[in-house]
TrEMBL record:
It comes from the Bacteria. The lineage of its organism: Bacteria, Bacillati, Actinomycetota, Actinomycetes, Jatrophihabitantales. It comes from Jatrophihabitans cynanchi. Keywords: ATP-binding, Nucleotide-binding, Transport. InterPro entries: AAA+_ATPase, ABC_AA/LPS_Transport, ABC_transporter-like_ATP-bd, BCA_ABC_TP_C, P-loop_NTPase. Pfam families: ABC_tran, BCA_ABC_TP_C. GO terms for molecular function: ATP binding. Coiled coil: none annotated. The keyword ATP-binding applies. Residues 4-252 form the ABC transporter domain. This is ABC transporter ATP-binding protein. The keyword ATP-binding applies.
């Protein structure tokens, strides 16, 4: 099935091997998690898929075609990415921040309105309506006219997520979506992630996350990296039971065969 295919990707920075021969797929309608201790290569992998880092070896495919991503063309290709930090524009309102995320998918957008291009008013009205819709879906529409620095961090995270979703991506890259959130915010986030593949604008999800409970709750498959190498892949249950994963996370001896391993180190 088409989707995103990562094929034997390696990245070297001078003498540092950040990724080595990493392969996996993100099929349409799936939620795939990437986990691993600090320094495992998770951010480098996301940067390769986003076009910020070129692989030293290997390749990417998108819809069975060679894929050479560029950060400024991700939306055109049907991908969107959130950042570890929210990355909102502090002097734009929440609504305007979300509208920025959808501007490339509209014929005129902000630039058209600025220069009076034909159809720009209509495009801006549609973009504004879509942005308000996503703020409503994420239950933060009441903050549409507020500036991000005046809002609680969990609200800012939802606004950043709305900004990514307003472009209607077919694949959403979530970079530590639970970072900085309290325990009371994790279940609503999990519900949202689980709902995306089956929504009226369905998209697959690839997420990097340190909160193991969230990963195991929402993901169909999990890819585990350690020192740039893929050491395990499978369902959440299969990954939890993999002795190599326990060793990577806990520095533990290999547990007896058949003994389950619980991953709960949110500080990794």
């Amino acid at each position: 099935m088409p989707g995103l295919a990562v094929r034997a990707v390696s990245v070297r920075f001078g003498g540092l091997q950040a990724l080595e021969d990493v392969s996996f797929d993100v099929l349409p309608g799936s939620v795939v998690g990437v986990i691993g201790p600090n320094g495992a290569g998770k951010t480098t992998l996301f940067n390769v898929i986003s076009g910020f880092v070129a692989p030293t070896a290997g390749s990417l495919e998108w819809d069975d075609q060679p894929f050479h991503p560029r950060p400024d063309r991700l939306v055109d290709a049907g991908l969107a990415r959130t950042l570890q930090a929210v990355g909102l524009f502090p002097r734009l309102t929440a609504l305007e921040n979300v509208m920025v995320g959808g501007a490339r998918s509209r014929r005129a957008g902000f630039a058209g309105a600025l220069f009076g291009l034909p159809g720009s008013d209509r495009d801006e009205r549609r973009l504004r309506a879509d942005a308000l819709d996503w703020l409503g879906r994420l239950e933060v529409a009441e903050f549409a006219d507020r500036l991000p620095p005046t809002l609680p961090y969990p609200v800012q995270k939802r606004i950043a997520l709305a900004r990514a979703l307003v472009s209607r991506p077919r694949l959403l890259l979530l970079d530590e979506p639970a970072g900085g959130l309290g325990a009371e915010d994790l279940e609503p986030l999990a519900r949202l992630i689980r709902s995306l593949p089956g929504s009226d604008t369905p998209c697959s999800v690839l997420l990097v996350e340190h909160h193991m409970d969230l990963v195991m709750d929402v993901c169909d498959r999990v890819v585990v990296l350690d020192f740039g190498k893929r050491i395990a892949t499978g369902t959440p249950a299969e990954v939890q039971a993999d002795p190599a994963v326990a060793t990577a996370y806990l520095g533990a001896d290999v547990p007896p065969a058949g003994e389950d391993v619980t991953l709960s180190r949110a500080d990794q």
